[in-house]
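hey can u check if this looks right to u? its 198 residues, i copy pasted from the old doc so theres a chance i mangled smth
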Amino acid sequence: IDFKYELLGERHLTTPRHYAYLKTIPLMRGKHVSKPIERVIKEAQRLAALGVKELILIAQDTTYYGLEWIRLMYAFPTKFPEEILDVFIDNDKLCKYIDIPVQHISDKILKSMRRGISSCATYKLIDKIRKKVPGIALRTSLIVGYPNETDKEFQELIDFVKEVEFDRLGVFTYSIAKLLLLLFAGANMMPPKWIMKS
């Protein structure tokens, strides 16, 4: 018995009726853990019965789960399984859309973030995706203000965004204070005063 599921039960639909997020994210970060496929299918069927027309799967890294998705979200760029691009060509039900969390483009910052991919490899991957699946929409998220990011690395990021022209882009500022606030909130503890001032 999965007590967490039994206690929480079915989640309520909070999106507009025509789409829904189908979460395959584990409750805690760590090794990749997927919901059992039976539970994902059951939830997808329930959402379809409610009138949902589009499912958006999200996970720690959806490329680890399989090739059954409708829309590919959070496809980690490191060791991206290029064979999945054929599925976009062969399967009409798969949205021509990939969310790839690049985070940064400077080799110095990528190494510091331990992303496991270089700037050159990132450019090549994006180029390969666009050539293999014409018309595909690409979304990414970037972090600015990361420790040791100078004007040089920030300009690399600006140039990258201008050159690649993502279809959707999320930009977030790095903040250790925000990270610590989330950790304290998760532990149900009051954070120190110096964090609250940040």
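Residues 1-8, 194-198 have pLDDT under 50 and may be disordered.
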